Amino acid sequence: MQFESKITPNVIAKDEVLKQSQNQTESRFGNSKKRLLRFARNDKIGVFQSSLNEKIERLKKKGVVMTIQRMAILEFLENSANHSTVEEIYTGLKKKYLTLSQATVYTSLQVFKRAGEIQELSIRKGKVCFDPNPKPHHHFYCEECKKILDINIDCPLAGKRWMEGHKVRHVQAYLYGTCSYCLKNTKNK
Question: DSSP assignment, residue 87?
Fold first, then answer.
């Protein structure tokens, strides 16, 4: 799967990020700072980009250094149709970011998780997946097509901090079955 980055220069125009990855920046945007500033004035940023920019700004405020690789990882996760694994993210980005390693992807995802900007899921047997939506919600795993779907239902346990003397940090429910799309395709056969 080839990943096409939509990161705009207004996200990466900070001097600290440019210094950290000068070679990658120069190859993508040329070495003219004037050119970067011209692109940074572009007001045509979609909702997705705005959401990504907000997440990047929150991470920076929490002290996370946002390298170009970390921004690409975060963008890939935000742009993914499914809840991606480390391997899927690495495979999708490695051609464009030659210095990227699976360890970098894993470490970056752990940093984002600790900062409260993504969720780690263990819904797939033997594989850890990552959800760009950090808000509490449940997940449905289709055993036919292997997709993970977000389920937004009112959970009676959400918001409870204590249960039978135990301290609850978070509630995460996994539902398994066949998604509506696969059910429709089965009926049509």
Answer: H
